[in-house]
Amino acid sequence: MAATALTVASTRGDAWLVATLVLIAPPLSAIAIIDARTHRIPNRLTLAVLAATVVAVAGRAFTEPGVLARAAVAAAAVGLFYLLLWRFADLGLGDVKLVATLALVAGWSGWQTVVVFVVVANLLQTPVAVWHLARQRRDRIAFAPGLVIGLYLAVAVGSG
Question: Residue ranges of the domains in the chain?
């Protein structure tokens, strides 16, 4: 919730975005916790976040016409990039679905936010990956916590 408060403070009055970020915070928190514990991301939670985000973006498109196209292109581009990672780098498919959904929110906020989201989400995973390499562990890394935190940080930074 601290990330939500930080993001709300930095969105400079976009009530639609603030409401959406607050609305999706509980299922995203659950996703991050579940992934950290089980290395699985429940589809029903990802779909709930997607549904809430699509409705909000469509609603926002009435007052800012370009937002829907920008958000959709961002979700498709980031989703495709992570789909390649799934195929060639052993990323989980749940992570791919989640990152495409979160890129919809980042795209809504702007292209700078999309770039910051992808970079920060990956940088947050770096210490975990290095730790796994140092210990020569081959088990999976929970990526959802980094994606969720990365989204909120990116919106906070990218909205300014």
Answer: 2-158
Whether pLDDT at 47 is above 90: yes
Mean local confidence (pLDDT), 24-48: 96
pLDDT in tens, 66-111: 889 999 999 999 999 999 988 887 788 999 999 999 999 999 889 9
Q: Answer yes or no: are the C-beta atoms of 158 and 116 closer than 8 Å.
A: yes
Distance (Å) of CA 150 to CA 92, 125, 129? 18, 10, 16
Contacts of residue 38, Cβ cutoff 8 Å, sequence gap at least 6: none
Q: Give the whole-angstrom CA distance, residue 120 versus residue 122.
A: 5
Inter-axis angle of helices 15-38 and 93-109, nearest 10: 160
Element (H, E) at 106: helix 93-109
pTM of the model: 0.88
The dihedral through the CA atoms of 16, 22, 23, 24 has a sign that is positive
In whole angstroms, what is the distance from residue 139 CA to residue 107 CA? 32
